[in-house]
Amino acid sequence: MTQITVRPTTPDDTSKWPKGDHWSNDRGTKFHNPWESYAYPSFWSLMKAAYAMMSTKDPTRAQAKTLIPHITNPDFGKSLNEYGKEGELKATWLGHASVLVEFPTVPSSSSGPTGLMSTSTAGAQSVQGGGKRGVRVLFDPVLGEGMAFWGLGPKRESSNPCKIPSLPQIDIIAISHNHYDHLDLPTLSSVFASQKETYGSEPVLFLPLNNRHVVSGLGLGGGKEGGGGGRGEGKVIELDWWEGRRVVVDGVGEVEMTCTPCQHTSARYPWDRDKSLWSSWVAKDVGPGVTNPTSVFFGGDTGYCALHSHPNPFHLPPPPSLPYCPAFKDIGDKLGPFTLGLIPIGAYFPTESMSGMHVSPGDSVKIFQDTKCKQALGIHWGTFRMTPERFTEPPEMLAAAVREAGLDDGVFGVCGIGETRGYS
To answer: What pTM, to 2 d.p., does this model score?
Structure first.
């Protein structure tokens, strides 16, 4: 069993902090986007979007399993390690916004000052590092054949890369928000059960504020931190924007998780809109044994600039006269630069209704620049039919936006479902 310890990186008593301007009440049970760049779509724009969804035929949808590149038996970076890539950050895209990230293997050390130290629940200390893998973080896992909204949600159109029991050992799961295409209870239940059976331990689950009730049926318990033994002890951590926790995985490494802002919304039902927080995430490789730290920005699901009825082309950046979300520049200034950005590029059409909460590829490039990512992988496309654009359109528009911005080829692109890439 792997020992996992969670330590605060921000003060425990957050009651002394001023509540963020994204809080809509004093209890932390209602939230909003505090920027002019956000506008919730009007009723009529939503009706137009629904009509576009029903009336638009996507010729690539029926061929998604062949048109969207995929690997049916991913090795999650094992082959990269065989080529001496242990020192690279690895990311495996599992479709939509689901990504498994493995941080570089921490070099072994026999002396205390350079080893990563962890205090277990019994109080004993152990030197970490020199393991066969790095800390693994799984973002927004949705690994079934559809979304669990009473069986009514969109179905997976492209190939599912793997069965849940074939996943390697996972240390951390981070969820961006509670929409069904990002927080899938059947997937989470299966992942926790499989990890417990195969590896004898379970991941720590990170959620934005007021999402704990959504996962209460999983039996993971409350938010007692500092331990990591069994169910109900340090397994569910809720954070507000800019709060962080340091996760020490015994014998493996140490990662700092920070809950960061994004421009979106939340709801599981028609009556609970914005009652739970949404977020992006930053994960950083930390600890005394790390000489070349790597870091990841995970965008989750976000908008950048509400274009309202602004005409296409929707793949280009928003006009400079319109307000854009300042949170991403704040993230880049405070926590960047990042080795890798995992940035959404799909579900953007029609812009009148979608742009406030879903980026276009042009917006994605702006976020890439604002957050100071060195490289980026496009996510949130090619899996579920969320909006009317063609399944294969987002990467095409991303390539155009990258050229428009004058960026180097390959600095921000896409990969196949189940494919693992290394970054340094």
So the answer is: 0.88
Question: 204 forms bridges with which residues in the sheet?
Answer: 172
Tell me phi and psi for residue 260, to 5 degrees: -125, 160
Joined together, the tokens standing for residue 325 give 């979300």
Q: Which residue shows structure tokens 């209704």?
A: 353
CA 367 – CA 96 distance, rounded (Å)? 18
Burial of 40 by CB count in 10 Å (0-12 exposed, 13-18 middle, 19+ buried)? Answer: middle
CA–CA dist 71, 94 (Å, integer): 10
**Domain annotation for the chain: domains and CATH numbers:** 24-106+130-423 (3.60.15.10)
Q: Under DSSP, is residue 187 helix (H, G, I), strand (E, B) or coil?
A: helix
CA nearest to 295, candidates 412, 376, 238, 414:
376
From residue 376, alpha-carbon distances to 116, 236, 284 in Å are 29, 28, 16
Map tokens 């896409």 to a residue: 414
Backbone angles phi, psi at 358, to 5 degrees: -130, 130
Q: Which residues pair with 334 in a beta bridge?
A: none
| SS3 label, residue 407 | coil
Q: For 137-163, write each residue's pLDDT tens digit.
A: 999 999 998 876 666 778 888 888 899
Q: Is the dihedral of CA 352, 356, 358, 362 positive or negative?
A: positive
- For the packed helices 361-370 and 327-335, what is the interaxial angle rounded to 10 degrees? 30
Residues annotated as binding site? 180, 358
How many whole angstroms separate alpha carbon 142 and alpha carbon 338? 25
Residue-wise pLDDT for 229-250, tens only, equals 332 336 899 999 999 999 999 9
Amino acid at 320: P
End-to-end CA distance of the chain: 30
Q: What angle do CA 366, 368, 373 make, to 5 degrees?
A: 150
